[in-house]
Amino acid sequence: MTAPTPYLLFPGTCRAALEDYQRVFGGELTLHTYRDFSRTDGPGDDIAHGELRGPVTLQAADAGADEDAVALTGVMLSLLGHDEAVVLRRWFDELSIDGTVVSALEKRPWGDWDGVVVDAHGLKWLIGFQGD
Fold first, then answer.
1. Cα separations in angstroms, 81 against 2, 3, 38, 89
2. For residue 76, what pLDDT is reported?
3. Parts of the chain with a pLDDT under 70
């Protein structure tokens, strides 16, 4: 069974966002412009469909004129136990660049580590692991 994959609509910043996520998470990035798909309902260089496949999979596009760009309220993208602690620490630090740390990545009273960061593109991430 596969898990849901977020499909995000960015306000004209899809290419930059997905390139940043590829830098953070690694993986293979595929980008298709409106021009590539012969679409005329948006600027030719805007992203009509993009996908990052790797340790973290995301799909995204630039929001069309009649679509709202991503604005998450009451939602976090969870990477709890998604990889080794050293990798999750690095992801947290890299997502923090030009973002906002909501809750530091630290050991909690129950023994696990977690933290929350809103990245430069407005996505809120919950990152954590067990052990040190």
1. 17, 15, 41, 11
2. 96
3. 1-2
Instruction: DSSP letter for 68, please.
Output: P
H or E element at residue 22: helix 14-25
The pLDDT of residue 1 is 45
What is the residue type of 38? S
User: CA–CA separation, 114 vs 130, rounded Å?
Assistant: 9
Provide the CATH number for the domain formed by 77-129 in this structure: 3.30.720
Class of domain 7-62: alpha beta
Please name the residues in contact with 114: beta carbons below 8 A apart, sequence gap of 6 or more. Answer: 80, 103, 105, 106, 108, 126, 127, 128, 129
**CB of 60 within 8 A of CB of 17?**
yes
What are the sequence ranges of the domains in the chain? Answer: 7-62, 77-129
- Strand 100-107 relative to strand 113-118, pairing: antiparallel
